[in-house]
Amino acid sequence: xxxxxxxxxxxxxxxxxxxxxxxxxxxxxxxxxxxxxxxxxxxxxxxxxxxxxxxxxxxxxxxxxxxxxxxxxxxxxxx
Length: 79
Hints:
Blueprint: E1 2-10, H1 12-35, H2 40-67, E2 71-78
Antiparallel strand pairs: 1-2
Helix pairs in contact: 1-2
């Protein structure tokens, strides 16, 4: 099964906003699990994943701002 979440061309500001909101949703998901978890190993793994997502967001913003034109974004979920 494939769910197509995003498919299209977006202006720089729209693209950054869309990517930011998606990454923030994933970060919040990990934070909620951390808050309900006592397993230190799992918590550290999730904290590292949050840091990676934050870095990816920073890199994406820089790339889009540097490109200075519309960008194509495709995002899907495969189950």
